[in-house]
Amino acid sequence: MADSKRQKIISAVINRMEGISVDDDYETDLGERVRDWEVNFQDEELPVLSVCDTVGDINFVNDNLDAPSQVHKLPVLLRVFCKSDTRAADLRKMMADLIRAVGVDPNWTDADDKKLAMWTRVTKAGIIVPAENFEIAGAAVELEIAYLVNRFEF
Fold first, then answer.
1. pLDDT (tens digit per residue) in 2-30
2. DSSP of 44-78, one letter per residue?
3. pLDDT, tens digit, for every residue of 123-133?
4. Is position 154 within any domain?
5. pTM for the complete prediction?
6. Is residue 73 one of the residues assigned to a domain?
């Protein structure tokens, strides 16, 4: 069975993030360690970028309940896990690289030059600091990717 459009988009996001390298004029080599929804890492693996898709809204086109298509708004969390002594300045560079990589093609065009998404927007970005200890725990960039599918497709 072929991948769902949602899976194709997530695969495209992962592939794009894997291209983050100083050799490609980014500030970091974050692309060396990109994972699909992983959250447990050893210190020697860090920093790691985990691409996580979460629950999003599905809307009928023009609010027409009989419309043949639906718009999915896919929230994607780009979560950077880092060592406890990582500098905030380094995390800011990583976030800038993530946002720049998203901007390369916010429609996530596939290998056949077909656009997978209608649009992408960055909704949040920042350093993750747990309230209990106020120590840097990582960084996150949140995206929303809108794409169109037939009703009852994903």
1. 799 999 999 999 999 999 999 999 999 99
2. GG-SEEEEEE----EEEGGG-TT-SEEEEEEEEEE
3. 999 999 988 88
4. no
5. 0.92
6. yes
